[in-house]
Write a structure and sequence with these properties.
The protein contains 6 helices and 2 strands, in the order ααβαβααα. It is mainly alpha-helical and 185 residues long. The chain is elongated and about 65 Å long.
Length: 185
Amino acid sequence: MPFGSLWLPVVVSAVAVFLASSVVHMVLKYHKADYRPFANEAEVGEAIRKGNPGPGLYVIPHCADMSEMKDPAVIAKYEKGPVGLLAVLPTGVPNMGKLLGLWFGFCLLLSFVIGYVARHTLSVGSDGMSVMRVTGAIAFIGYGMSSIIDSIWHGVPWSNTGRALIDAAIYAVVTGLAFRLLWPS
């Protein structure tokens, strides 16, 4: 099957996921619980500004390599706390147009990969449930699995991961339906 026959489901599924994510974030609003404020935000912000960090991911306490984890001084820093990761973004109001454009680009890229795998897994005229099962499973993996890694290694609360996996399931159904309805017969 030529890949050109899958461009329509690739684009439609990306647009559909983009729209579904808009509903999830602007209408359902269950992601409001994803972020918590510091009780002393002004003081924390001032302390971070004093260090003048550029955009990036920072860790506290910092160890140059794992052998330092046995050093009593480093152990004391961990026991005293805080222990955490901090993502510092560029200063200024977030450019939502750019961020939404990048999100749509990701949706399109993932839909392309889903189409690629489906093309090599399924054939023209495959039954709708097989198409939906394969494309939906790949979509779920693509949209959801990295959130588990974030909880394991980056301390993201498991409740956030649960909500991200709900999103992934919604996006998987939307993607699977788009491919099912538009699969070449």
